[in-house]
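Form 12-C: Joint structure prediction
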Amino acid sequence: MILDLQTPDFGIALPQVIVFGLAIALVLLDAFLDKAKHFAWLTGLSLGGYAAAMVALVGQDGENKSTFSGMFVADGLTVFFSLIILSAAVLSVMVAASYIERLEGRMPIGEFYVLLAFSVLGALLTTSAGDLIMVFVGIELSSLATYVLTAFAKRRLSSVEGALKYFLLGIFASAILVYGMAWIYGSSGTTNLDGISRHITSQIGGEDFREPSLLLGLLLLVVGLGFKMAAVPFHMWTPDAYDGAPTPVTAFMSVVPKAAAFAATVRVLVQALGPLRDDWLNLIAVLALITMAFGNIVAISQRNVKRMLAYSSIAHTGYMLVGLAAYQGGQTGFGTGAAETGDQGIPSLLYYMLAYTFMNIGAFAVVAWLQHRGAGMTLDDFSGLATTNPLAAAAMTVFMVSLMGVPPLLGFYAKYYVILAAIDADLLWLALSVVVLSAVSAFFYLRVVAVMYFNEPDVQPRATTTPLLNIGIAAMVVANIVLGLFSADLTDLAERWSDPVDVEAAVADGR
Amino acid sequence: MPWDVIIFYLIAAVCITSAVGVVVANNPVHAGVFLVICFLNIAATFVMMGAEFLAVVQVIVYTGAILVLVLFVLMLVDPDDLPEFHTARPVQRVVGLLLGAILLLEVGAAILSRTVTGARGDATAQNIAAAGGNTQALGRVLYSDYLLAFEVVSLVLLVGVIGAIVLALPERLGEQISITRRGTISLGHPRGTDAALPAGPAGETPMVDRETPSPTPEPTTAGGRTLIMVTDPDERTTVGTRP
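Section 2 - Result
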């Protein structure tokens, strides 16, 4: 018997293939390139590679196909999450380039870009997973690269400490995740996400149904994914890891691994465990509430801006979980026209994640900008920034106000859609807590603004030029102001998240 | 009771006992040896299930390679340097035990009361035999259905290698200093500590100020040999690398 190998359809996986090629090219160039050319070449290549992958996304949009025997799926969810991840990658490179090259005793820039590319690739593969195995492998690839990036400033003890905590708790979470997957596999006999959904539906037969083994699997999966997305009470690693990592890495890891975790959550909970919807919706709603409350309240007491932003990112995880808790689509998961059932939950989650990318990386970028100029990361280092550098202070103000969710800015639209989705799903208490906790968050976001505008500057900042970082910050400011106006286009794109993909036809077709 | 069932329970009992031993053992070397016993018994269960290839991989990769490496490392480390075990506060231990017991109960309840069974795959004895045995059947599946996952796992390993290099490579020492160091005794190139870096403002993580170069250390002589006192890990790392 000859092994029957089929050629996978690389065409529909073009963005992922480009990022893979970029990662390999970076490994090789890092080894063979003249040391003097490293910075310019590798930065340019990274930016170009991610931009090319974003262009290739246009071709992937609307394809709705699967390949690699159903392991890889290119549908609306893939496209939207890939857009988020690739935007975050481009912005991270812009924020990171000069930081890695100049600060903290010059970190090896080649390895930095390589690990960044692999982390992005892992996140992309998670979003396009059609199988539990790919969900797990993608998350692991993304996380493993991020663990190393966290420890990148290895001379600073806090960086190594944060990375160690992140690593130990992360692999612990992975073990829980894979244990949950094993339970789900044991109860359904397949690892294919649609297959799981079909098998569970056939076993349930439309009745109200409590199957302990499935519920245990569901619980373990939620715990494992909760760790990865930093939801309370699985957030313990977040403040130390975010604080310890070099600032651009913090910006990166507050978005990309989180996007991967959310993509995995949507894939697993909605696509595979859609039949258990009634069980996980309550779980997610409670998780969302405590995550929002904890993140916002603890952030108040932080004097270190980076730590404050870490808790704020926990709070934003909570807002996004509200979007997930407001899921109203059918029980059979994808391809059943969630748009017809009037589901706004997942589109609002997607939109929020995109908005969060521009707000959060922006805030960390300004912290990195200050570090370039010899300042630290405490609130006092921001004092009088409006006098010494009005533009940077204005940019920080935009990001803070946007994170808070004030009308003309992107953060407002994001919160608006989430609240709307929650109200639509009869989760009035959750919608109300989003509003109340946003008001609480005003305290610590506006404190930064107040310190910048009303305090006297302590020290004159050191003069340096950071062209790429400045361009990145400017781009994010523009995105925060302008992107809200194009909300209709973005939500249209987000609403196509559940476009049907006929995996079985593709497998039978030999792709 | 048929023999294979008795043997299975024997193996399972030894496996679980040694797994508990891994957690309970105070000496990490003992824990490592317990883990070897545990893995060997898991390999035995694989054989009983007819998965000979997995059994062999379990023995060669886990017991043979990884655990021996772990034991080597443990034996090379001074026992006094190892972290203290079981130093958690009593409350933490009680809560931890309680939560663990609850999880165990949940797992037990799920096993005993499950009604849903997974769909059977096509890996029947006949199909495996038709494919030419266990190993061939696995290989076929791995390189066709699970090709993408298989390739991505290899990327995970690549990232692991790169990460290990990044984190374990001492410092990017320039050629000059490596030449200098050949003829001298370096007084422990200090690295990886905050103390070696210039302290920043209070409460802030120290940052390295590359633009104000630290003073070049004066070579001193001790016992007739030249010593270089390296105080700041940054001062030599840029020599000979990027300008």
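Section 3 - Comments
The first helix of chain B runs from residue 3 to 24. The CA atoms of residues 220 and 227 of chain B lie 5 Å apart.
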